[in-house]
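pasting Glycine zipper 2TM domain-containing protein for the record, 171 residues
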Amino acid sequence: MNLQAKLIASALCLSALPFAQAADFEDYGRVVRVTPQVEQINRPRQECRTEYVQVQQPAPERGVGGAILGGLVGGLAGNQVGGGSGRSVATAAGAIAGALVGDRVDNANTPNQGGVQEQAVKQCRTVDHWESRNTGYEVTYEYRGRNYTSNMSYDPGERIRLRVAVEPMQR
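structre below
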């Protein structure tokens, strides 16, 4: 082989050198440890309950129509009795008695005071509700005698598939 052919062959080998420097291939590593990555999330919620409390009711209002009508009827009846100044006393006594009787008849079924009634009261409060959520896995694996750690979104199992890149070291 002459010198010129050797130079051409050397130039071709040197030009192909960058393509031969990097090589990627797939291999498997042995999984040593898998640690789930968990975060705590607070999702507050409302808790409500119903309590029954005693409430005093106000006394109902009494009617006055019976007392007025009774007073008029009693006054007219008293005016028919007696004479002179006795007639005025009889009219007044008749009006008072008629008013009392009319009031009792009008308000016979009305209680004098209010009662006690149960009323429902809703009580609510906010309570913390903590949930655990898995955010991924910290995977430690062994490849060719060295341990490596990587975060992954899934548990790879007993072995992990690796992409290996081989590159020459720079001086």
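The longest strand covers residues 23-42.
Residues 46-126 form one domain.
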